[in-house]
Amino acid sequence: MSNRNSTIALIVGIFFGGIAFFLLYEKASEIEQKSTPTQVLVATRYIPAGSFLNTDLVEKKTIPEAFLNPGIVHTLSEVDGLVNLVPISTGEQILSNKFGAGEESLAFNLNPGYRAYTLEVTETSGIGNLIHPGNHVDVLTKINSNKQEKTSFVFQNLPVLAVGQRLDLTKRSKKNQTNSSSEIADSNSGYNTVTLAVTPEEAETLMYLEGQPLRLILRSPTDDEIVSIPPQSESEIMAKLGHFTPKIQNRHIEIIHGNSKGE
């Protein structure tokens, strides 16, 4: 009888010991999981409401999983085209529930350090009313320098924020963009102002040149090259007339010889 009781006690002890070991193992696994280092985005400085995030405003930081907040943002692509609806403090984790489409406001389309500057244009100086928000343009002018009239590029590759009252909403998340047929049709209507994104120094230059003939030159969406072109006087332009140098290799040119066509 004594041996039987000892056996039963041993079995019971092993059983409860196994349970205790299992519970300790589960607890240890849970603690280990919560202490697993995870990379998240945190603010490098105070970010006011209505800002678009960029690499200067955030940095990656490794913290234990136990300290992660729900809705943590791991990459900037997760909030691409969205603005923070509330301020974010320095060192604070970037959370997805603090972002939204924001207002359809011109101010929300401006990057830090830039200003919105509106130019009055005609159908000719405004590219025949064919500029759209999101395009890039050069600014060309004609000025008097030392009693000599010259043409000169003022700026190149300036972003177009708006034409008339139509804004560039390309920074909005695509899932929040809904363009109705009436909006698309309206995009082809006329305008007499174009609003550009410029630096404060560029704004001063444009203000100084107001009153001079300014003409916008539309750029290809794939062309962001800045070229150095000195101002040209009437005599310099006249000297170049009739002299042509092919510069664009892939331009389609049609040559007509009598009634036949060749390329």
Q: Profile the largest sheet.
A: 7 strands, antiparallel
The unreliable regions are 172-185, 251-263
Secondary-structure element string: HEEEEEEEEHEHEEHEE
Distance between the termini: 111 Å
Inertia-based shape? elongated
Strand content: 25-35%
- Using the CA coordinates, give the radius of gyration: 32 Å
Category from helices, strands and their pairing: alpha+beta
* Annotation, overall tally of beta strands: 13
Classify the helix fraction into a percent range: 10-25%
Mean pLDDT: 76
Number of helices: 4
What does this structure look like?
By secondary structure, the protein is α+β, with helices and mostly antiparallel strands. Among the domains are: 37-100, Antifreeze-like/N-acetylneuraminic acid synthase C-terminal domain (Type Iii Antifreeze Protein Isoform Hplc 12), CATH 3.90.1210.10; 108-178 and 189-234. It is 21% helix and 27% strand. It has 4 helices and 13 strands. It has helices at residues 2-34, 181-186, 200-209, 234-240, and strands at residues 37-43, 58-64, 83-84, 99-100, 115-120, 136-145, 148-163, 166-167, 193-198, 214-218, 232-233, 255-257, 260-262. The strands form 4 sheets. Strands 5, 6, 7, 8, 9, 10 and 11 form a 7-stranded antiparallel β-sheet that branches. Strands 1-2 form a two-stranded antiparallel ribbon. A hairpin with a 2-residue loop joins strand 12 and strand 13 (260-262). It is elongated and about 120 Å long. The model is unreliable at 172-185 and 251-263 (pLDDT under 50).
Jot down its keywords.
263 residues, Type Iii Antifreeze Protein Isoform Hplc 12, disordered C terminus, 27% strand, alpha+beta
